[in-house]
User: Which sequence fits this backbone?
């Protein structure tokens, strides 16, 4: 059990929703019982310069476990219980599957009304509060690509039903959509028209990326990233809050461009919302031994731990240290420590955007990473999946 | 307006005199002394073929909520008998000072300082309306009065009265008095006029006050179809004066963006103007 900090100085929900602090929302599941240790480290280091949140997925957990998880982090201001309505069969999400027995236990998932329904929306919102959430996500799911304008209108009618049920209580407009909504200018315009027209101040948007060819590689798809930039910039100009769900360090880049924050987790599946690459294996073949990996704070990229240690021997590599990485220095790589280091590093990076012009701060960091790489002898530079291919793409977007 | 209407209107309203103030597509407006409603009032008698009392009441519900100086105060909605027909009468406060359209016709344009005050005040009013989920839908110089004749005190009148427009052909936009000249491309394409349509209309109005010209249409009225008009609106707006303030230039150019969200909200425009004044 983690030590409970006395009088931790968290940025309040009010401060987070006012957009006064860059925010990171981390996933809590049974796989990361030591999560509070990472949160404590971030609070001690950054206090009110960093907004912190914890999110739990409702469908894949029991009521008891969600209540326990969120109560373990009751000092964290922003607590979310995500209804993940896009997962329901018939939502239109291509990845939706029939409800598993545990999911079917959540009655709201099997009773999604065909049309916006205030009573049902109120039930979904109230469930989130009962589970321990401090801010509700609107009872909305997948927004289809086909007939984009109509699909978005329908989703926004459901948002309106939740708003009607919640009154003035804080709510995030919760939409899950394909990355075509970012990459295709016409679809992006439809989305941005609604954002600017809307009276809703805070949005929680999740975009499904194309299948990643290489695990742990940062998103480098230019049209999608241009879409993120347009989105984040518009939210900032309109003084609105944008939280990007499951967006990993693309969320950090977007924060530098105008978003308020993002959600991520220790696992690859929580760091992005995209189909995983299909792994072919022969029947009876042993699963390959997992490669020890770590998020490199300098390169802002998850690389093999051995490579991280090798780079750490070069001057200028050390950056944003965490107690978890220091422990691994002496005790060796451990998956749970690497996960805690990941979340702490993401929080540390996010906090670097707290003061000054966010895009300038981020650009400095990207340039410093590129400079470090360029000072290495070519044979010492990371290659393959360890190569931070995103840096020049990010630099261009931030310049 | 027929002179013989005046006594009939006065009689219908139960007063001794009704002085004509103007006539538009949707009705005729009179200055009428109504002591029970606080004195001189502007009474708009809506044309019976375009409006019914129920609809007018609904349209004016939003207007009643605003008491700021940027919105003409709606004092009452009555149904009166005129020439044997029921007519809806929208009764608003009377605002002496004239309208922006008359100033444009007279070639009386505000200087940069006054234009900035006008823009800030008008956009503040629009922001207030939008925050209350109310869309004007017919912002144009004719629907903007100047309280006490001052550029810094614009007042919006005639809320939501353009909703019923469905004529597919423009037969002439007069001296920019027709609403078509202030409609954004998306509205001309048949989409409903929303908040960002109001921002376009403000942009056109500000451009006219800066240059005396419409940003996209020729000086001389001509007949054109909606398609003709859309083609013109997809082009580049006319030039603003060389010595025009940068912040106002950026604002007007932004408000005239063909893509609605690029115009930004009224609240953002007010914030930008306020910050640039510091």
Assistant:
């Amino acid at each position: 059990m983690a030590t409970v900090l006395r009088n931790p100085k968290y940025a309040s929900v009010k401060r987070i929703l006012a957009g006064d602090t860059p925010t990171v929302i981390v996933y809590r599941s049974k796989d990361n019982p030591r999560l509070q240790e990472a949160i404590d480290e971030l609070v001690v280091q950054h206090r009110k310069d960093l907004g912190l949140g914890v999110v739990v997925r409702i469908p894949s957990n029991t009521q008891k476990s969600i209540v326990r998880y969120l109560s373990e982090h009751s000092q964290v201001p922003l607590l979310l219980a995500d209804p993940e309505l896009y997962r329901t069969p018939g939502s239109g999400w291509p990845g939706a599957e029939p409800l598993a027995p545990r999911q079917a236990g959540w009655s709201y998932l099997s009773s999604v009304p065909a049309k916006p329904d205030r009573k049902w929306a109120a039930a979904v919102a109230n469930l989130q509060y009962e589970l321990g959430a401090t801010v509700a996500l609107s009872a909305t799911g997948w927004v289809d690509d086909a007939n984009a304008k109509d699909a978005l209108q329908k989703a926004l009618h459901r948002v309106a039903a939740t708003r009607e049920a919640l009154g003035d209580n804080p709510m995030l407009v919760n939409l899950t959509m394909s990355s075509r909504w970012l990459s295709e200018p016409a679809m992006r315009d439809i989305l941005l028209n609604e954002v600017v027209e809307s009276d809703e101040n805070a949005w929680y948007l999740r975009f499904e990326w194309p299948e990643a060819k290489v695990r742990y590689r940062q998103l480098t798809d230019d049209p999608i990233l241009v879409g993120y930039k347009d989105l984040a910039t518009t939210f900032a100009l309109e003084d609105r809050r944008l939280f990007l769900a499951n967006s990993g360090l693309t969320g950090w880049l977007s924060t530098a461009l105008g978003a308020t924050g993002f959600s991520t987790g220790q696992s690859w599946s929580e760091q992005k919302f995209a189909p995983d690459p299909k792994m072919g294996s022969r029947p009876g073949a042993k699963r390959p031994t997992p490669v020890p990996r770590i998020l490199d704070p300098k390169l802002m990229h998850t690389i093999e731990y051995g490579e991280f240690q090798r780079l750490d021997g070069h001057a200028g590599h050390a950056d944003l240290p965490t107690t978890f990485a220091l422990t691994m220095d002496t005790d060796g790589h451990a998956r749970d420590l690497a996960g805690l280091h990941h979340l702490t590093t993401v929080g540390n990076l996010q906090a670097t955007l707290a003061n000054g012009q966010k895009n300038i701060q981020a650009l400095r960091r990207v340039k410093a990473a590129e400079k470090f790489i360029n000072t290495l002898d070519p044979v010492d530079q990371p290659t393959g999946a360890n190569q931070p291919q995103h840096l020049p793409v990010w630099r261009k977007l931030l310049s | 307006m027929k002179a013989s209407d005046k006594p009939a209107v006065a009689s219908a309203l139960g007063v001794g005199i009704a002085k004509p103030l103007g006539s538009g597509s949707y009705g005729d407006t009179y200055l009428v002394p109504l002591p029970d409603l606080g004195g001189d009032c502007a009474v708009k008698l809506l044309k019976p073929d375009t409006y019914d009392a129920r609809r007018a009441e609904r349209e004016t519900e939003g207007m009643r909520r605003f008491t700021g100086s940027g919105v003409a105060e709606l004092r009452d909605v009555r149904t009166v008998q005129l020439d044997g027909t029921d007519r809806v009468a929208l009764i608003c406060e009377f605002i002496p000072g004239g309208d922006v359209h008359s100033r444009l016709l007279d070639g009386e344009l505000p200087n940069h300082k006054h234009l900035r005050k006008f823009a800030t005040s008008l956009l503040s009013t629009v922001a207030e309306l939008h925050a209350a989920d109310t869309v004007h839908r017919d912002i144009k110089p004719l629907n903007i009065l100047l309280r006490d004749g001052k550029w810094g005190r614009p007042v919006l009148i005639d809320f939501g009265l353009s909703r019923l427009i469905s004529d597919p052909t423009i037969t002439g936009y007069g001296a920019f008095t027709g609403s078509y000249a202030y409609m954004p491309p998306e509205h001309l394409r048949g989409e409903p006029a929303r908040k960002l349509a109001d921002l376009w209309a403000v942009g056109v109005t500000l451009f006219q006050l800066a240059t005396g010209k419409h940003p996209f249409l020729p000086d001389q009225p001509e007949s054109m179809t909606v398609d003709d008009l859309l083609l013109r609106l997809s082009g580049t707006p006319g030039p603003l004066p060389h010595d025009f303030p940068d912040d106002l230039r950026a604002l007007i150019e932004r408000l005239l963006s063909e893509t609605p969200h690029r115009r930004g909200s009224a609240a953002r425009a007010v914030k930008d103007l306020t910050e640039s004044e510091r």
Remarks:
- Chain A is about 45% helix and 15% strand.
- Chain A has a mean pLDDT of 94.
- The CA atoms of residues 21 and 308 of chain A lie 30 Å apart.
